[in-house]
Design brief:
With about 375 residues, the protein is of the alpha/beta class. Helices cover about 40% and strands about 20% of the residues. The chain is built from 12 helices and 16 strands. The strands form 4 sheets. The protein has a 7-stranded parallel sheet with strand order 7-6-5-8-9-10-14, with helices on both faces. The longest helix has 21 residues. The protein starts with a strand and ends in a 14-residue tail after the last helix.
């Protein structure tokens, strides 16, 4: 069924999206010349069930997993992975993959137009520890790249998801718990760039109506991909090292508590946020959380399966200073209240499933392994 509406033309904008009868719509432009000084475009609107989705920085920890989840829901060809490096064979065989440089506006614009993109998931970023080693590059990727993404999303009326982080908070923020709305003032370029993204997204939503959505993510734990240089990555590396050598050297203090989440919960949270009705979203940026733990608490749980595990501490002052400025416990009551977020994996369930996945990947049996458990 077709309905018509008239919208004022925007230079370079060939597609508009809107909500019709509660459903997301794709609009195909039919241009009519106007005798008035202003040009207008008339669009035919048809509802659709499967949005075309572009994921930037998709070869990282979150991108590969989210592409798999979204392809299961919306079809393999409707989810386009992209990055600036050559993809491994299994990625190329799993579905569409493109080269996309977020610093090249024209490259991104061609991808959006040629593939009729509806939703854009922006994962390209330099993480906390890596960003501190090359601040100028972090500014280019995390801020200038974001500006390109926002402008394209505004021009083509895309639904835009950008992840934020516990690193968006600083030493002046309340740490236990840390609410959605509070003082932030981070001390890393990664955190500063993420606060910038949150505020720009809110501004573009208020000023231009951009459908911007953002989740502040805790440390994400996954057994499928290599750590990407984040401060919380010890909680991923420890599984490989514990199974291979029975020993792990941690760069954070044993009592350093940080919020964490297992990747399956994280991906489900992102998907639910992407799919939430506009009316459900009281905020444009929400905290997302599952559980918090310290290195010594994680080791205690691991020793239930690997009793001989040796834990050593060689504290990295740079990463420790970063961690000391971050929240210890995330208050995600807003997400739970507004759009029904619930995590499933607790610390015990996360450790069980991580041991299963990593031991299979390494080909190492775990005598003390038990099946994963999740919260009801």
């Amino acid at each position: 069924m077709f309905r018509k509406f008239v919208t004022r033309a925007v230079t370079g904008c060939h597609h508009q999206r809107q909500q019709v009868a509660g459903k997301l719509t794709r609009c195909h432009p039919v241009v009519y010349l106007s005798s008035t000084p202003k040009n207008y475009q008339v669009f035919d609107v048809d509802t659709f069930d499967n949005p075309k989705i572009l994921i930037t920085g998709s070869l990282g920890q979150l991108g590969q997993g989210l592409a798999r989840v979204l392809r299961q829901k919306y079809g393999k060809d409707n989810v386009i992975m992209s990055d600036i490096i050559k993809a491994p064979k299994h990625i190329l065989e799993s579905g569409p993959y493109l080269y996309a440089d977020i610093l090249d506006f024209k490259n991104l614009q061609e991808i959006v137009v040629n593939n009729n993109i509806d939703w854009l998931v922006h994962f390209s970023a330099l993480l906390s520890a890596v960003g501190e080693q090359d601040v100028p590059l972090a500014i280019k990727v995390n801020i200038q790249g974001l500006h390109n993404i926002m402008e394209l999303s505004k021009m083509y009326q895309l639904r835009l998801f950008c992840p934020s982080t516990i690193g968006a908070f600083g030493p002046d923020s309340p740490r236990n718990p840390t609410p959605d709305l509070t003082i932030q003032r981070p001390r890393t370029i990664y955190g500063v760039s993420k606060v910038h993204a949150e505020l720009m997204g809110e501004y573009y939503n208020h000023r231009f109506g951009l459908d911007f959505r953002c989740l502040r993510l805790p440390g994400v734990i996954s057994g499928d991909t290599k750590p990407g240089g984040g401060t919380t990555d010890y909680a991923v590396s420890i599984f490989d090292e514990s199974l291979k050598s029975g020993k792990f050297n941690c760069y954070l203090r044993p009592d350093c508590k940080l919020p964490m989440i297992y990747i399956d919960d994280c991906l489900r949270g992102i998907t639910e946020m992407l799919e939430a009705q506009q009316s459900e979203l009281k905020l444009r940026t929400y905290n997302l959380a599952a559980f918090s733990f310290t290195p010594e608490e994680l080791v205690a749980e691991l020793r239930k399966h690997i009793p001989q595990l040796i834990m050593e501490y060689d504290v990295d002052p740079v990463r420790q200073a970063i961690a000391d400025s971050w929240p210890q416990v995330f208050d995600d009551s807003g997400a739970r209240k507004d759009w029904g977020w619930r995590h499933q994996y607790d610390l015990n369930g996360m450790v069980n499933i991580m041991l299963e996945i990593v031991s299979q990947r390494l080909g190492i049996p775990t005598m003390h392994h038990s099946s994963a458990t999740v919260r009801g």
